[in-house]
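Title: Prediction job returns without error message
Component: structure pipeline
Severity: low
Priority: P3
Assignee: unassigned

Description:
Job completed but the reporter wants confirmation the result is attached to the right record. Sequence as submitted:
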Amino acid sequence: MESPDSPINRKRRRKAEKMYARYRWSFRGIQEMEAKEAVRLHALNRVVFVDVRDPAEQAVSMLPEALAEAEYLKAPQRFMKKRVLCYCTIGYRSGLFVKKYGPQYPNLYNLSGGFILWLHAGGIMEKNGSKTRQVHVYGQKWALQPEGYFPVY
C-alpha cells in the first residue's frame, strides 16, 4: 500500500476537499467535524457514527460501530451525551441530514468530506466488525479513496 502522502493520495485528498467545499453551500450553518478530529474522538469513544447512505452501500462497509440512519432515528435521545457524527461518501447527503435534524438534536455533526476524508485521515472501514478495504462510493466521480482501498459503485 502507498504512503498516505503519496502523490496519488495527495491529489485524491485535495480533489475530495474541493468537492466537499462545493457541496457545503447546500447546508450552510450546520455543525461539522473535520476527519482528523473524528479519528481522535473515535479513539476516545466519544462519538457515535450514523451512516446515511443506502443499505446497499452500507452492506459493503461502514465506519466502526456505525448505526444506519433508521436505527438512529428510532431513539436519538439515547445518544445525547455523545457527538453524533453523520456521514456518507463525501458529506453531501449527511450534510442535508444534519440540516434537517440538527435543530432538534444539537449534538449532530456532519463529517466533513465524508468517509473519503476519514480514510485519508487514517480512519478505517469495517464489514461485520472486521476491517475491510472495500468501500462503496456514490459513483466513479467519488472514487477518491486512498490507495489500497477498492471502490464499489
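Comment from assignee: result matches the submitted record. The chain has a mean pLDDT of 96.
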